[in-house]
Design goal:
alpha/beta; 4 strands
Protein backbone atom coordinates (compact mmCIF):
# COMPACT_ATOMS: atom_id res chain seq x y z
CA UNK A 1 0.00 0.00 0.00
CA UNK A 2 1.41 3.33 -1.03
CA UNK A 3 1.45 6.35 1.25
CA UNK A 4 -1.25 8.28 -0.72
CA UNK A 5 -3.58 5.24 -0.56
CA UNK A 6 -2.92 4.90 3.14
CA UNK A 7 -3.91 8.55 3.72
CA UNK A 8 -7.01 8.13 1.59
CA UNK A 9 -8.23 5.44 4.00
CA UNK A 10 -8.44 8.09 6.69
CA UNK A 11 -10.47 10.42 4.50
CA UNK A 12 -12.99 7.70 3.70
CA UNK A 13 -13.95 7.27 7.32
CA UNK A 14 -17.41 8.46 8.07
CA UNK A 15 -17.47 11.91 9.54
CA UNK A 16 -19.35 12.22 12.83
CA UNK A 17 -22.90 13.30 12.11
CA UNK A 18 -24.48 16.10 14.02
CA UNK A 19 -27.32 14.94 16.24
CA UNK A 20 -30.79 16.04 15.38
CA UNK A 21 -31.65 18.75 17.94
CA UNK A 22 -34.80 16.84 18.84
CA UNK A 23 -32.72 13.90 20.14
CA UNK A 24 -30.73 15.98 22.62
CA UNK A 25 -32.36 16.00 26.03
CA UNK A 26 -31.46 18.61 28.58
CA UNK A 27 -33.50 18.42 31.77
CA UNK A 28 -33.94 22.15 32.23
CA UNK A 29 -35.30 22.61 28.73
CA UNK A 30 -38.06 20.00 29.08
CA UNK A 31 -40.91 22.06 30.47
CA UNK A 32 -43.32 19.13 30.29
CA UNK A 33 -41.62 17.52 33.31
CA UNK A 34 -42.63 18.94 36.68
CA UNK A 35 -40.68 18.30 39.85
CA UNK A 36 -42.52 17.04 42.90
CA UNK A 37 -40.35 17.42 45.98
CA UNK A 38 -41.24 15.05 48.82
CA UNK A 39 -39.75 15.47 52.28
CA UNK A 40 -39.33 12.36 54.41
CA UNK A 41 -37.70 13.94 57.43
CA UNK A 42 -37.88 12.04 60.75
CA UNK A 43 -39.78 9.18 59.06
CA UNK A 44 -39.24 5.62 60.31
CA UNK A 45 -36.96 3.82 57.86
CA UNK A 46 -39.47 0.98 57.54
CA UNK A 47 -42.02 3.39 56.00
CA UNK A 48 -39.81 5.06 53.41
CA UNK A 49 -40.06 2.30 50.77
CA UNK A 50 -43.85 2.42 50.96
CA UNK A 51 -43.87 6.22 50.66
CA UNK A 52 -41.67 6.02 47.56
CA UNK A 53 -43.90 3.35 46.00
CA UNK A 54 -47.10 5.31 46.70
CA UNK A 55 -45.60 8.51 45.30
CA UNK A 56 -44.40 6.75 42.14
CA UNK A 57 -47.86 5.25 41.62
CA UNK A 58 -49.60 8.58 42.25
CA UNK A 59 -47.59 10.69 39.83
CA UNK A 60 -47.11 10.13 36.12
CA UNK A 61 -43.94 10.03 34.08
CA UNK A 62 -44.44 13.77 33.52
CA UNK A 63 -43.28 14.26 37.10
CA UNK A 64 -39.80 13.93 38.46
CA UNK A 65 -39.81 12.87 42.11
CA UNK A 66 -37.09 14.27 44.37
CA UNK A 67 -37.04 13.08 47.97
CA UNK A 68 -35.51 15.15 50.76
CA UNK A 69 -34.28 12.74 53.43
CA UNK A 70 -32.38 12.67 56.68
CA UNK A 71 -31.78 8.92 56.34
CA UNK A 72 -28.35 7.61 55.44
CA UNK A 73 -29.86 4.56 53.72
CA UNK A 74 -29.56 5.95 50.19
CA UNK A 75 -29.95 2.54 48.54
CA UNK A 76 -33.71 2.51 49.14
CA UNK A 77 -34.00 5.55 46.86
CA UNK A 78 -31.58 4.15 44.30
CA UNK A 79 -33.34 0.77 44.16
CA UNK A 80 -36.60 2.50 43.28
CA UNK A 81 -34.96 4.84 40.78
CA UNK A 82 -35.83 8.14 42.40
CA UNK A 83 -33.68 11.16 43.10
CA UNK A 84 -32.90 12.33 46.59
CA UNK A 85 -31.16 15.04 48.54
CA UNK A 86 -29.77 14.57 52.05
CA UNK A 87 -30.15 16.86 55.05
CA UNK A 88 -28.56 15.94 58.39
CA UNK A 89 -30.99 14.63 61.03
CA UNK A 90 -31.53 16.59 64.23
CA UNK A 91 -29.41 14.22 66.36
CA UNK A 92 -26.42 14.83 64.05
CA UNK A 93 -26.99 18.56 64.26
CA UNK A 94 -26.99 18.39 68.05
CA UNK A 95 -23.78 16.35 68.02
CA UNK A 96 -21.96 19.02 65.97
CA UNK A 97 -23.77 22.09 67.29
CA UNK A 98 -20.58 23.68 68.66
CA UNK A 99 -18.76 23.72 65.33
CA UNK A 100 -21.49 24.19 62.72
CA UNK A 101 -23.77 27.19 62.08
CA UNK A 102 -26.77 24.94 61.37
CA UNK A 103 -29.43 27.60 61.08
CA UNK A 104 -27.73 29.57 58.30
CA UNK A 105 -26.46 26.40 56.59
CA UNK A 106 -29.84 24.63 56.47
CA UNK A 107 -31.79 27.74 55.48
CA UNK A 108 -29.31 28.32 52.67
CA UNK A 109 -29.37 24.66 51.66
CA UNK A 110 -33.18 24.64 51.50
CA UNK A 111 -33.17 27.80 49.36
CA UNK A 112 -30.57 26.18 47.09
CA UNK A 113 -32.68 23.01 46.73
CA UNK A 114 -35.75 25.05 45.83
CA UNK A 115 -33.75 26.99 43.25
CA UNK A 116 -32.12 23.86 41.85
CA UNK A 117 -35.27 21.76 41.44
CA UNK A 118 -37.94 24.48 41.09
CA UNK A 119 -40.64 22.13 42.39
CA UNK A 120 -44.23 22.42 41.27
CA UNK A 121 -45.31 20.99 44.65
CA UNK A 122 -43.61 20.15 47.95
CA UNK A 123 -45.21 17.29 49.86
CA UNK A 124 -44.25 16.32 53.40
CA UNK A 125 -44.26 13.00 55.20
CA UNK A 126 -43.10 13.13 58.79
CA UNK A 127 -41.70 16.48 59.79
CA UNK A 128 -42.36 19.23 57.26
CA UNK A 129 -39.59 21.56 56.16
CA UNK A 130 -40.91 24.56 58.07
CA UNK A 131 -40.86 22.71 61.42
CA UNK A 132 -37.47 21.18 60.57
CA UNK A 133 -35.99 24.62 59.97
CA UNK A 134 -37.84 26.08 62.98
CA UNK A 135 -36.36 23.42 65.28
CA UNK A 136 -32.91 24.55 64.18
CA UNK A 137 -33.84 28.19 64.85
CA UNK A 138 -35.30 27.27 68.27
CA UNK A 139 -32.05 25.57 69.28
CA UNK A 140 -30.04 28.60 68.11
CA UNK A 141 -32.21 30.96 70.15
CA UNK A 142 -31.88 28.71 73.19
CA UNK A 143 -28.10 29.03 72.87
CA UNK A 144 -27.29 25.47 71.85
CA UNK A 145 -25.69 26.75 68.65
CA UNK A 146 -22.66 28.92 69.25
CA UNK A 147 -22.67 30.12 65.63
CA UNK A 148 -25.66 32.25 64.66
Amino acid sequence: MSVPNWFSNFRKKEQPREEDPETIHIYASDTSISVIMITVLSVESSHIDEIISVAKAKFSKRHRLVFITDSLDFMRFRRQGVMFEYLPPLHEQRKHANVMPWQSYLNGRWDLLLEKWKPLHVLAYGQNMESYLASVADRAEAGTDEHR
